[in-house]
Structures
1.
Amino acid sequence: MGAAIDVSFDCVGFNKTMSTALNATRAGGKVCLVGMGHNEMTVPLTPAAAREVDVIGVFRYKNTWPLCLEFLRSGKIDVKPLITHRFGFSQKEVEEAFETSARGGNAIKVMFNL
């Protein structure tokens, strides 16, 4: 990606996305795993441990789904304006999405259309 990544967040919880975060993070960096997709996962911890990458788990959204879904259903919150950019899933589009997100600016939420 052209630069060392100090901190990565995996918010998907799949083997592939966790592996990408672990492999992309620089030696001595941090990876935050937000939630888990399954009870047991297969991820490359040994190479990450050898590079002294810290892995932090966050699982604080327990029991928040009903309230969030009610807010969405009732129209109390509208999340559509938060999705500022949409990209396809080709290599070129994925790179453009990451560059857009890294630049910041008016990018709030960058989404992939699969």
2.
Amino acid sequence: MSEELFHNVNLGWNQITLSRNELFLIIVLIGIFLHSLLWFQLLIYKIRIDLTFFFSLTYLLTDFMIMLAFIIQYIIRTNFQRSTHGFVCYFEAYFIVYIDIIETICLTFISICRYYEIVLNKNIYINYRKLILFISIILAILIIINMFIQNYFSWSIVLDEIGSSCSINNKNIYVIIFNEIIFFFIPIILCFYLNIQCLIYLKKRNCSKMNNNNYKLINRFLIFYIIWLILWGPFVFIEQFYTKFITNQIEFIVILLTTLDNTIDAILVSHLDQRFKIVWKKTYSLIKTKLKFKRTLKIHSII
């Protein structure tokens, strides 16, 4: 374990970091509300949850976990004493990085499954359901093992600077290259490649209702993925680098973008899966109907 982990004399942030995190807290609280509303809608409308919904829901859950983790971090950093510091530092440094990777994997799996369904005409959720769950669990464990090995051999250490949150410092250039290729570039390239192949396949096929629906589905996913890449991608990319190489201004902008992405994902996921779009539409229609009913009552009462 790194000696830097125990250099900080307290858990508090400096004034600049605290001010920035107060802004992030406001955005996160809005995100918590929107995400909670979406989960509530999924329950009250009794949306069927099966394996086809697994990766989309897991992606949505990771957003919620990141926002909840920030609130816990904020409470600890502004209230608790040093006795919790070792755990807090490792939690701050590794949890978000781990969830980032899980998010990337979820989007990649969605692309793979849709490619199998559209291009190869195989229902992967029925034919390979056990394999999907097995690979998901194995990958989640392998990511933890990878982090542990890199920390154990001091290829990456937890950096604790007074007044700031803890972060990972990758000291080995080969580790940085490995992490960037495996967890950033390969998933992104694979996602774009598979979705573009789906579009090419659908264009070559005769136009039908099913093909048209699939075409819209892929287009919506690509819109979602590009927005995710713009807002979330910079953080996933720079988190592997030594924080002193990143200026405070760049760090602030990058974290602001990721925080905004977490918040608006509750709405953007409508492009990820049709079921999210359905529940938002139902709620919108319900509100619209009630407002229309109230206006009608008001008009009648005036008359």
3.
Amino acid sequence: MSSSYQSSRSSATHRRAAPPPNANNAASSGSVRQDVDPAPTPRPVFRFLGFGFIIFLVFLQFLPATHFRHPSDPLRRWTPFDDSTAFGATSDGNSSSAAKNSREDGMVHVVSWMDCLDLRLLAVLANSTLSSSRYPHLVFFHFFIPKGNEDKVSFFKLKVLFPHSNLEIHGQQEVREIITTAISGAQFAGSSFVEVAPFIIPSVHQSLTKFIYISPNILMKGKVEDLIGTALSNYAIGAAEDCSRKLDMFVNSNVLDVIQRSASKPWVSETPYAKNACTPDLSVLLIDSTKLDGDFVDAFLWWSKVLNLNESGKNSAIVLALYNKYLKLSNSWSVTPATSSEMINNTRVIRYDIPNSVCSQFGSGATPQVSGNGNNIWKHYLPPMSDQILGS
């Protein structure tokens, strides 16, 4: 037994005692190779091709974009930029999508016009209208902006804020051309341009047969479905009365009496004008173009010439052209100035002061600034992320 134990222990000792290989000697003899071989040196021609490919990719970034992805498209399909009907923007003519939607029962078309573009105001108008609507998916916005179809960025910004809304942008050029041609050679108050546009739009966009026109500086707290359902009877226009501005504030009553007795025009009243009559508020209009009088522009221009209007009487001609020719909407649709949050909560239609803007011709370079009177109630109706998307 003891001899066996000694033998096994001696054998184990012999194995442990075996000297390890000498690493220095092995390295010096060159018997061990490196784990990773050095990288091969590429040929100069491949280096040149690789550098050229990188430069090619850099220059691709400077090419104009030809396609885009619709913000509300769940499939994120690429659509050519020249396909204007794909994203609901039209320049001047009628769009196929607008014509399609106009034939659908129950659609409420809301139109607004901006000479000097400020997307914040359009966002406030859309957000207040949709928030108050009973059926927001049936509200269809038509925004007429200076650049129209060329301003795709404005459309995308609005669609990001209102991805599920029905929204189109239109150009103003064709409407402007009609008005400019009609007023050629006549004295015309330039700031009244926006007030004439709602009555010309249906002749250009014939798909808009019955619609609500809303000025961009309006908070719409009433349900537009109720307004569009108002029966206009034989009238083509519905408007709320503004009794803070009487007729004699726009035109001298004696002059008006002389015109009424001497002129024989279809748009001149057959009975004497009521000097203390309330005037229509042009901020919110209900228009049925199928009943719209074709000589409205002629009446407007005639009153402008006869009264020799200047800038101080900029909308007197429109007030006289609409005299007794519009349906007086209920007092609930009267436009109320925004003075306090309590006032806003208790009224349907609120007018707020437009923030001051620096605007180039046709509004192509609008730069919004802080409102001069400090009344920023309208900012509470901006949708979330507006500052980041539209700018403050």
